[in-house]
Amino acid sequence: MTSSLINIGRSGAAAARASLELTAQNIANAANPDYSRRRLNQSELVGTSVSGFNYSDTLIGVRITGIDRFENETLQRQARDASSDLGRTNAELTGLRDAETALEQSNVYSGLVELEASLTLLESDPTDSALRTGALETARQLANTLNTADAGLETARTLTQSEINAGLEVVSGAATELARINAELGSAREGTAGRAALLDARDAALTDISEQLGISVSFESSGAAQVRINGSPEPILVQGSSASAVTASYGADGTAQFSVGATSFAPESGQLAGRAAALTGIAGLQDELDVIANATITRANDAQANGAALDGSGGQPFFSGTSASDIAVALSDGEGIATAPAGSPANSRDTSNLGNLLIALGGNDGPIKGTDTMLLSLSSRIAGLNTTHEGLTVIADSARATLSAQTGVNLDDEAANLVRLQQAFEANSRVIQVASDLFDTILSIR
Amino acid sequence: MTFVATSTSGFYERSLSQMETLRGSLQQLQSQIATGQRIERGSDDPVGAARLRSLSRVERLNNVEQENAARLGQDIGAAAREVEGVLNLYQRVRELAVAGASDTLGEDGREAIALELEQIGEELFARSNATNFTGQPLFAGTAGAPAFVEGAGGAVIYNGNSENAAVPIALGTEIERSVTGDQLFEFDVDGTPTNAFAVTSGLAAALSPGAPDPASAAQGALAEIDAAIDTANRNQTVLGTRLAWVEVIQQSQNELSIDIEEQRSEVGDTDIAEAITRLQQTLTVLEASQSSFVRVSSLNLFNAL
Fold first, then answer.
1. Buried b (16+ CB within 10 A) or exposed e, B70-85
2. pLDDT, tens digit (0-9, with 9 covering 90-100), for A318-371
3. Closest to B42 (Cβ–Cβ): which among A117, A375, A402?
4. Is B297's Cβ below 8 Å from some Cβ in A?
5. How far, in Å, CA of B264 to CA of B262, rounded?
6. Dihedral (CA of A129, A130, A133, A138) sign
7. B4 to chain A, minimum CA–CA distance in Å?
8. Cross-chain Cβ contact B165/A355 below 8 Å
9. d(CA A186, CA A198)
10. What sign does the dihedral B135-B136-B140-B144 (CA atoms) show?
11. Which of B42, B68, B142 sits opposite A123 (nearest CB)?
């Protein structure tokens, strides 16, 4: 009877001590983002013997049955999906802002307006060689500007592509890790600290992947995760202990194509999807920039072909090249600008051909209007993405906050636990003390 | 009712992101105040940025058109001064013709008049070839060559063309920079085309010694001289009207400049008063959230243990 009391006290003290250790573990991991808080699982230990109609209960105390890990599959899925959506918008926004910077800082629009202005100035005195040289140098500046804008877009593209490659490294590392964890989970026993740590690592790997690629996950009873990439089609990334590699290839226009093994797919969300969208956007911008450069080249050269230079000879091409990357001024000096219509004598002050060039450049279908439209649609798209980004940030933050309220460590709770468990430990010691006193009382009867 | 407690790391994360947001808007306000520009990049306000772009284009072109108008004003002014000089010469030629028509004048007197007329002829030739500040002929039309040249036998002939170069100085407004030499110096007398140089040199020849009946020749020349004066007068009026037109356009260009500046300021400039008020407000909120963060984070059960 007394020894039973001592055993009960001992089991209680041991359980309280184990709980205290777990509380200390929770506190130690309060700042670990991948950690889910743990709780000791306990059950009452009783023995009941039946002899005839008599029941005899033996109370043996408490038994530690294992370590519980707080988890919530729904909240985890929500947090992962929200971070995939946010990652997509974030990455697309970053890529397009790079492109916006490239186009705005290179001042394509003001370069075109400057050319228009210097040609308008030339109308006031078409034989003035200073004005002619000024117009030619402004044209050279414009060609440089278009080259710079093109190179800026190229840089934005290269940067985005290298970010995709880095993201693929993350996915491949996390997928390999997840496959290893899946294998280990098969042999880990329920309720052990080791299993809880493996599950933490599993969720961390899933979070890492979902930032890069939106995924749907299903769990086996062992806790092993099967991962499919959200997209069309939906290839399997991790199944059991095998992980597939995701690769990206880039087309001539810089757009990305992803594939798992031999299956190519278009990702739906995640940073990689956003960067792919940004690459498509940049390719479109480069096309538009080339159209603008080409319109400038052909319109200027067409006007030149219909005119006469200062010395009365037929106008030679103003620009060489066909796109923003290779546009250059072809005229060797300002006297070659064909201000007068073809057939005019030398030193003619007729500016009707120059007027036609100005209309061709400044008209509603000309390159100046085209540049304005391109910049307006790009900045509107970015402003729209900004708004989406703000909304998704709130959603992702609140999903993460809800998840962490369910599974994270709250230091106030743990402090209260410390006090409670310390008291429990002391109470159990008192039980042992009482048992010992009882035993002594019986022994001291004489 | 379910009560959801926040985890400790959740609390720190949320406080951090809130303060980061505040700091971000502080930075944006600060750069708006420092640069005076409300729109840092196009995506801050796409429509506003597009308006700024078209305003800057209109402004740039308006500046160039102002420059063109100033140059055009100079050219027209120079042409008008030359026409004024030409008219003075014509007046003198008329006086000399009247004097030459008088029978009281002796042969010596006529010779002196003839010599003066030759001088006037040269000055007229020089004025007909006058140039603007950049050395371009004023009365040669769109041709670049000298306006009048001496042909075979000393006759002065027009070398330019009859197209007047027009300078666009505002949207849809082109003003011709001068009058052409044939408009100014060539005219018909009784259906016969002639020019001022021929009239002057003809009169000089008629008054030279040895010429038959100089008085009636001088009398006959008066009608030709009057035709020359009429032609020059007409052209002077035309140039004066154009000069007034240029001034009207310059006036409206100046008004447009101010208008563009106002619109640009309205669309793109930082409203300093508003920005500073919002900066102060954001600063206050940031300070309050920082100090409440410090207080709340120090409210920890461990401190009570």
1. ebbbbbbebbbebbeb
2. 999 999 999 999 999 899 999 999 988 888 888 889 999 999 998 889 999 999
3. A375
4. no
5. 5
6. negative
7. 6
8. no
9. 11
10. positive
11. B68
Given A117, A345, A351, which is nearest B64 (Cβ)? Answer: A117
Contacts with B277 (C-beta within 8 Å, 6 or more apart), sequence order: none
With tokens 């590392």, the residue in question is: A173
Instruction: Give Rg (Cα) of chain B.
Output: 39
Interface contact flag, B57 A125, Cβ < 8 Å: no
**Chain B nearest CA to A164, separation (Å):** 24
Tell if the CB–CB gap between B168 and A127 is shorter than 8 Å: no
The owner of tokens 């039980």 is A431
Residues ≥6 apart with Cβ < 8 Å to A443 = none
- CB of B64 within 8 Å of a chain A CB? The answer is yes
Of A444, A429, A332, A361, nearest to A113 by C-alpha is: A361
Residues 6+ apart with CB under 8 A from B1: none
pLDDT digits (tens, 9 = 90+) for A383-432: 999 999 999 999 998 898 888 888 889 888 899 999 999 999 999 999 99
- Tokens, residue A358: 């100005």
> What does A378-415 look like in DSSP terms, one character per residue?
HHHHHHHHHHHHHHHHHHHHHHHHHHHHHHS--HHHHH
Q: Rounded CA gap, B115 and B4, in Å? A: 117
Phi, psi (deg, nearest 5) at residue A51:
-130, 110
Phi, psi of B196 (to 5 degrees): -65, -35
pLDDT at position B172: 79
Most B CBs within 10 A among A110, A379, A409, hence the mutation to make, goes to A379
Report the amino acid identity of residue A3. S
| Structure ipTM | 0.80
Please give the single-letter amino acid code of residue B9.
S
Rounded distance, CA A232 to CA A374, Å? Answer: 30
Instruction: Name the 3-class secondary structure at B137.
Output: strand
Question: Minimal Cα distance from B141: which residue of A?
Answer: A349
pLDDT digits (tens, 9 = 90+) for B40-99: 888 889 999 999 999 999 999 999 999 999 999 999 999 999 999 999 999 999 999 998
- Residues of chain A in contact with residue B142, where contact means CB-CB under 8 angstroms, are 340, 344, 348-350
A314 pairs with which residues across the strands?
A308
Contacts of A278 (CB under 8 A, 6+ apart): A91, A92, A94, A95, A96, A99, A160
Mean pLDDT score of chain A: 92
Judge: A415–B300 Cβ closer than 8 Å, yes or no: yes
Inter-residue contact A265 to A86 (CB < 8 Å): no
Question: Tokens standing for A431?
Answer: 């039980």
Q: Does B19 touch chain A (CB under 8 A)?
A: no
In sequence order, which residues have a C-beta less than 8 Å from that of residue A396 and are 6 or more positions away? A79, A82, A83, A85, A86
Beta-carbon separation of B165 and A397 below 8 A: no
Please answer yes or no on whether B63 and A116 come within 8 Å at the CB atom: no
- The alpha-carbon gap from B69 to the nearest alpha carbon of chain A, in Å, equals 8
Q: Per the CB < 8 Å rule, is B61 touching A116?
A: yes
Pairwise CB contact (< 8 Å): B67 & A124: yes
Alpha carbon of A197 to those of A189, A345, B47: distances in Å?
Answer: 12, 90, 53
A166 vs A183: CA distance, rounded Å: 26
| Helix (H), strand (E) at residue A247 | strand A246-250
Q: Which two tokens stand for residue A371?
A: 């540049």
**Helix runs in chain B, H state only:** 8-35, 46-101, 107-128, 181-185, 196-207, 214-268, 272-298, 301-304
CB-based contacts of B264-269 (< 8 A; 24+ apart in sequence): B264/B52, B264/B55, B264/B56, B264/B59, B267/B38, B267/B48, B267/B51, B267/B52, B267/B55, B268/B37, B268/B38, B268/B39, B268/B48, B268/B52, B269/B36, B269/B37, B269/B38
